[in-house]
């Protein structure tokens, strides 16, 4: 049976702000790695975890990447777009853009899309992407 895992479990594990809960989540993640438990989560959970670590807990972007990638690689964790997260983290760190923008760029590149309608100037930092505007 597959179960959903929510943001707050990842946050308890990463921040260890509740030692008992952090150990419980570690035990769960070990079971997931061994294939004894099957989990699924959504991209929104991953985004919320990254956003909270960065904005609330002030964790540096490179450290967030080092925390998240082993979790995303767990064989018993099903996450849509799993192949997008690694390149998104590289863009997030290298270009100092939001993780959301980085994920969208990585998604576009995965789909061989080179143009984006956006007023967000952060996309100009990515040489492979051309930012365009709607016209009348």
At a glance:
The protein has six helices and five strands.
SSE blueprint:
Layout: E1 2-4, H1 7-15, H2 19-34, E2 38-40, H3 43-55, H4 61-72, E3 77-78, H5 85-94, H6 99-110, E4 115-117, E5 130-132
Q: How would you describe this protein?
A:
This protein is mainly alpha-helical and 136 residues long. It has two domains: 1-80, no CATH class; 82-136, no CATH class. The chain contains six helices and five strands; from the N terminus they run βααβααβααββ. A three-stranded parallel β-sheet has the order 1-2-3, with no helix packed on it. A two-stranded parallel sheet has the order 4-5. α1 (7-15) crosses α2 and α1 (7-15) packs parallel to α3. The longest helix has 16 residues, at 19-34. The mean pLDDT is 97.
> What is the terminal-to-terminal distance?
52 Å
Strands, count: 5
**Which residues form runs of ≥5 with pLDDT under 50?**
none
How do the helices and strands follow one another from N- to C-terminus?
EHHEHHEHHEE
What is the approximate shape? elongated
Number of folding domains?
2
Main beta-sheet strand count, sense and barrel state: 3 strands, parallel
Radius of gyration: 17 Å
Give the structural class.
Answer: mainly alpha
Arithmetic mean pLDDT = 97
Strand order of the largest sheet: 1-2-3
Q: How large is the share of residues in beta strands?
A: 5-15%
Determine the number of helices (DSSP H or I, runs of at least 4 residues).
Answer: 6
How much helical structure, as a percent, in the residues? 40-55%
